[in-house]
Amino acid sequence: MKWSNLGQRGDPGKGCHWFCEVLQVFLGTHTPKLDEKGRLILPAKFREPLSDGLVMTKGQERCVVIWPDDRFQDYAESLRERSLNNEKVRAFTRVFFSSAFDDSADKQGRVTIPASLREWAGLDRELVVVGADTRIEVWDIVAWNQYLAVQEPGFATLDEDVILP
Q1: From residue 115, how far is each of 33, 36, 138 by CA, in Å?
Q2: Which CATH number fits the domain that encloses residue 38?
Q3: Confidence class of residue 22 from pLDDT cuts 50, 70 and 90?
């Protein structure tokens, strides 16, 4: 796969000399429409990284998250490392995995968003598809605009909490 270069994963001291894994970065905001069958035409630049399969899940702010299959597997592995003795971990993993659907895009780059995920995110015809690093988020256009209205004013100061010095 030829993906956008973000960085390398792996410890050079542990066999990662020249052939480290290069992570895909999904970027940008797109405004496709959902068709009457619940299908989304993926932005062209998002299609190749999803060509080996994808997984759709509920997103935290009532959006649908689309993961390349390998990134979903990495995230699932990180969840497995959490203690199942923790009630919040059990609750999160139940909801997260029970709402997940695996799929692949058709030759026209379309994926069908399952009805339960469309309902969760309040998706209608007008959508916003957001590149969000190693995943894609699908939002109802009204919900996205409301989210931005709240979040964008504080964007300049968020880096103090998010990015480590």
Answers
A1: 16, 12, 14
A2: 3.40.1550.20
A3: low
Express each pLDDT in 50-68 by its tens digit: 999 999 999 999 999 999 9
Tell me which amino acid residue 33 is. K
What length does the chain have? 165
* Token reading at 23: 């992570």
Of 36, 59, 53, the residue nearest 1 (C-alpha): 53
**1 within a domain of the structure (yes/no):** no
Q: Is 76 within a domain?
A: yes
pLDDT tens string 82-135 = 888 889 999 999 999 999 999 999 999 999 999 999 999 999 999 999 999 999
Map the chain to HEC letters. CCCCCCCEECCHHHCCCCCCEECCCECCEECCEECCCCEEECCHHHHHHHCCCEEEEECCCCCEEEEEHHHHHHHHHHHHCCCCCCHHHHHHHHHHHHCCEEECCCCCCEEECCHHHHHHHCCCCEEEEEEEECEEEEEEHHHHHHHHHHHHHHHHHHHHHHCCC
Q: 129 forms bridges with which residues in the sheet? A: 30, 138
Q: For residue 148, what are the contacts with CB-CB under 8 A and spacing of at least 6?
A: none
